[in-house]
Amino acid sequence: MTHDHDLVLRPTAAQTEAALNPPPGRTGGDLVVETLAGLGATTVFGLPGRHALAVFDALRRSDLAYVGLRAENNAGFAADAYGRITGEAAPLLLPTGPGALTSLAALQEAAAASAPVLAIGSQVPRAGLGGGRHGHLHELADQQASFRGVVKSVHPVRTQSQIPSALAEAWESALTAPHGPVWVEIPQDVLLAGTVLPVVTAVDAAPHDLPPRPELTAVAADLLARAARPVIIAGGGVVRADASGKLRQLAERLDAPVVTTFGGKGAFPWNHRLSLQSRLADRHVTDFLEDADVLLVVGSGLGELSSNHHTFEPRGRVIQIEADLGKLESNHPALGIHADARLALSALLETLPATGPVREDATAADRVRTVLGPARERLDGQDPTLEQRVLAAVREALPDRSAGFWDMTVLTHWAWSGFDARRPNTMHSAQGAGGPGYAFPAALGGAVADPTRPVLAVSGDGGALRSVAELATARQYGLDVTWLIVDDGGYGALREYLTDAFGESAPAVTDLSGPDYVALAESFGVPGVRTTPETLAADLAGALATPGPSVVVLPVRLRLPVPAYLDRA
């Protein structure tokens, strides 16, 4: 009997010859690039730095495509988007010290959204590590420590022979559910030194499956089969696991209404008879969810934005399927199932009876209509004519299969609840870490991931000022991204937050003097147009239909929607 651990992979004669006679002139940087190619990477993002130059030199001799951005956090946002769209780990090359630290906000967003990013940072030479020789440029006392609280795993390298295995372990970690960013750190002298190690070829780093435990699946299936008023909350984990089809099958089997979180938008059809859409910021929907006798939460930790700022208090039994162990039962007691969303939904479908339950009360579709009607009336009571017109114009202009990337801006607050994403994995926003400046560089990464469709970025002028340098990147690579900048002369959301909290705003804090964005875009060689709410749909559609980057500026002041938790106070 032969066991798997007894198998030995013997090299062919050609592999042996190649291994014994590696090409001259290679360095540790070549080992990095060769390993990335062997893992299946095709594109890398990043910025060069003095300690990392050997890797960038090796890129010249490889088939990997390099996309260089103008700031490390923007490179991180681009890699995050590439990982979300492709489902592959996105390599991100970072310099030592301040350059590495600048990427932390982007890696925090990737961690919150479960985006697979393989961050590879350089380090000072080994002699300067751990309290050794001080005074190196960009030196930090403990660079790894800065990343441990942000990324999923840390993989330090100290010798060349460690490079392939460390990168393979990091790749596997990034792509094992829950997906997330990882950190690999390699000293300058290890990268620069010549190597006699053989060329790295195919590398085995398959991610681990995360199936549900069968006894938990059995209990969950029994609870759902006997439920009188089951409801499903679908989060971003459904999108990351490509489980939208399984979700729909389960909802229809159970005749259970579905609401998607802001991170899970597109996971369930917007106009399906069972769809509560993504109106989590409405008290009528919140009341409906609280009334469920069995609430199935899939791929969400029920954090602040998914729980009406933690005012949501379910009264029935909660079943939570979550790949991130730290989020399991972190906010509400539940039957916690630690599993990938797709595998768990598949197991439930296999365990549940083939036919759905018989309900004695109103059908689930009727119950959905009784909730969405008052929800719309509540929204209409805020007189959101302007905001809804702008949002409708964006929806009209954006092709169904095109991805949109949204900054933390006033229009995004309306889009979270009111925008029909139409397809899974097409609406992405900085609602994890919540930092402005995400949308445009992320959209550039999205365009690299799928160059066959135009991509939209939506920012306020406050967020736009943080990423405007990437107009040069968009122009250099000819990326098909249209950037909608809603210019309200400042941090619009913060204006309203301050007014709500303290009775008045603070113009010195929230008001911004900005450039002429159309002229600024044109100075980068990017066409720009100034629009109005009435002409937005046509101007945006025209920009999206024209290949290459473009900027559409909408000078308008929008109001935030009134959050439901204030209604319940």
Describe this structure in words.
The protein is of the alpha/beta class and 569 residues long. The protein folds into 3 domains: 20-192, Thiamin diphosphate (ThDP)-binding fold, Pyr/PP domains (Rossmann fold, 3-Layer(aba) Sandwich), CATH 3.40.50.970; 214-376, 3-Layer(aba) Sandwich (Rossmann fold), CATH 3.40.50.1220; 382-567, Thiamin diphosphate (ThDP)-binding fold, Pyr/PP domains (Rossmann fold, 3-Layer(aba) Sandwich). 40% of the residues lie in helices and 14% in strands. It has 25 helices and 17 strands. The chain has a 6-stranded parallel beta sheet with strand order 2-1-3-4-6-5, sandwiched between helices. It has a 6-stranded parallel beta sheet with strand order 13-12-14-15-17-16, sandwiched between helices. Strands 8-7-9-10-11 form a 5-stranded parallel beta sheet. Helix 16 packs across helix 17 and helix 16 (385-397) packs parallel to helix 24 (536-545). The protein is globular, with a radius of gyration of 25 Å. It starts with 12 loop residues before the first helix and ends with a helix. The mean pLDDT is 90.
